[in-house]
Amino acid sequence: MKRRVVITGIGILSPIGNTLKEFEESLKKGVCGKDDADSSKVLGYKFPPLFRLKNFNPHSYGTHLLDPFIQYAVAAAEQAIKDAKFDLQSVDPYSIALSVSSSKGGVHTLDRLKERFLKKPTAILGARLYTSAVPNFADQWIARRMGIKGPAKCYVAACATGTVAVIAGFRMVSEGQAEYCLAGATDASITPLMLGGYQNMGALAKRNIRPFDKHRDGFLVGEGAGVLFLETLESAKKRGAKIYGEILEAAHGQNTTDPIAFDPGDHALSFTLKTLMHRAGLSPEEIDYINLHGTGTRHGDLYETLELKETFGKQAYKIPMSSTKGMTGHMLGATGAAEIIATLLGMQESFVPPTIGLDQKDPACDLDYTPGEMRSQKITTAIKISMGFGGQVAVMALRRL
């Protein structure tokens, strides 16, 4: 029998705030975390503006020698434990699981040390490259620092990684594989190699992310991490913990026709959403808010809109939705986790986060995307949508208790 799983702790590092309070205030105000200049430089290379972390000091965590993706994960995990008011020493360390993932791992380390390794390929340098580069080492460092010994998982699903990671944590607690779980994702991909790849693919916007706008031309890259502390509803009530929300159900899907562009005829997203609705026992009329993937690409935003109509029919026009990427940038592997957190805050504080950058709606994208400013509204049941290159789809239903 599956157990009910709730979120009782949150950790967030983002371009619009490195604490939960900062993040919430920025969401409500529609703050844009983009660099002020019209372009950004990375190691001498010029790129469109970036959404970087600000005022983050890894020295305070003792992680400054590690790759930034690990630094961010450790900081967010420690925030989540503190927010949950959870005493790690009071429980069996084997009862705590980890599902903290990254879509790329330590690309900063690979970029920084590759020339040194080519000139002098020592075993020590090779080990340093390996242990700071592989995505699952975020889990390993969190486990080492916190004394966690339970099961650890690390699923990579491109830009759906964060949502997939939280789903994996949800399953472990729901099915009794663990009593507690730190789940989320981290990404630090602001390097010439990664940015150059996105630019050559034609995926980057010139100056602004404009989800669902008629002039949208792509996304801009952000960085950071989001980690949730999950436990059973019974455990949370026993501890008297604050409950941000319950994970009702989740579903995965796959687009099979193209590694980058989703095929409208394949219906991967609508199939996955319908699966989620069936598993959760929800009707379209019960959905109060949808946090969209909404990257600001010409194809992706139109595809998402069409699939929402395919799933919800006429009710799609009545559901408030938004993409928060105009504020945070596209945090790539971490974006799903950060957006689940944004959804939970909206549920707790009764507001719909805005879609900033949406000034002139595309006639083909004609749903309620909450343009410009937040909207006060009670949210009881919400859905989070994530998609990733490679055809990955992941969706989750959340409920306020």
Polypeptide structure, described:
This protein has helices at 20-29, 68-84, 107-119, 123-133, 137-146, 161-174, 192-200, 233-239, 268-280, 298-312, 325-328, 335-349; strands spanning 5-13, 40-42, 45-47, 96-101, 180-187, 224-232, 245-254, 289-291, 321-322, 351-352, 375-376, 381-388, 392-399. By secondary structure, the protein is an alpha+beta fold. The strands form 3 sheets. The protein has a 9-stranded mixed β-sheet, with helices on both faces. A two-stranded antiparallel sheet has the order 2-3. The model has no long low-confidence stretch (mean pLDDT 95).
Q: In a few lines, what is going on in this structure?
A:
This protein has helices at about 20-30, 70-85, 105-120, 125-135, 135-145, 160-175, 190-200, 235-240, 270-280, 300-310, 325-330, 335-350, and strands at about 5-15, 40, 45, 95-100, 180-185, 225-230, 245-255, 290, 320, 350, 375, 380-390, 390-400.
CATH architecture of the largest domain: 3-Layer(aba) Sandwich
How many individual helices? Answer: 12
Structural class: alpha+beta
Poorly predicted regions:
none
- Indicate the percent of residues in helices: 25-40%
What topology does this entry show?
Elements: E1 5-13, H1 20-29, E2 40-42, E3 45-47, H2 68-84, E4 96-101, H3 107-119, H4 123-133, H5 137-146, H6 161-174, E5 180-187, H7 192-200, E6 224-232, H8 233-239, E7 245-254, H9 268-280, E8 289-291, H10 298-312, E9 321-322, H11 325-328, H12 335-349, E10 351-352, E11 375-376, E12 381-388, E13 392-399
Parallel strand pairs: 4-5, 8-9, 8-12
Antiparallel strand pairs: 1-6, 1-7, 2-3, 5-6, 7-13, 10-11, 12-13
